[in-house]
Amino acid sequence: MDTLEVQRRLVALFVVGCLMLGYPLLTVYSVPQTIGGIPVLYVVIFVIWAVLIGASAAILHRATGGDSGGA
Amino acid sequence: MSTTLLLLVATAYLSILFAVAYYGDERAEHGRSLVNNPYIYALSLAVYCTAWTFYGSVGYAATTGINFLPIYIGPTLIAILWWGLMRKIVRISAHQRITSIADFIGARYGKSALLAGVATVVAVIGVVPYIAVQLKAISTSFGALTTPLDSTAATEIPIWRDTALYAALVLAAFTILFGTRHLDVTERHEGLVVAIAFESVVKLAAFLAVGLFVTFGLYDGLGDLFQHGAAVPSIEALYTVDASAGAFADWMWLTGLSMLAVLFLPRQFQVTVVENVNEAHLRKAAWLFPLYLLLINLFVLPIAVAGLLHHGDATHADMFVLLVPFGEGQTALTLFAFIGGLSAATSMVIVATTALSTMICNDLVVPLLLRIPQLNLAQRSRLTGVILGIRRVAIVVVLLFGYLYLRGLGDAPSLVSIGLISFAAVAQFAPAMLGGIFWKRGTRTGALLGLVAGVAIWGYTLPLPLLADSGWLPASFITEGPFGIGALRPYALLGMSELNPVPHTLFWTMLANGGLYVAGSLATRPSIMEQSQASRFVDVFRHAGPQGAAPWTGSAPVADLRALLRRFLGWRAADRALQRYRTRHDLKALPERADEELVDYVETLLAGAIGAASAKAVIGSVAQAKPLHIGEVMDILDETQQVMAYSRELERKKAELEAATEELRAANQKLKEVDHLKDEFVSTVSHELRTPLTAIRAISEIMHQTTDLSPEQQRSFATTIMRETERLTRLVNQVLDLERLDATPVLDRALVDLRDVVRNALSAVRPQFEQQAIALNVTLPNRPCPARIDRDRMTQVLLNLLSNAAKYSTDADPHVAVRMACTNDTHAVSVADNGPGIPEDQQEAIFEKFRQARNRVGPQAGSGLGLAIARQIVHRHEGTLTVESTPGEGATFTVQVPAHPPEPVPATDPEASVS
Question: Does ipTM exceed 0.85?
Answer without folding.
Answer: yes
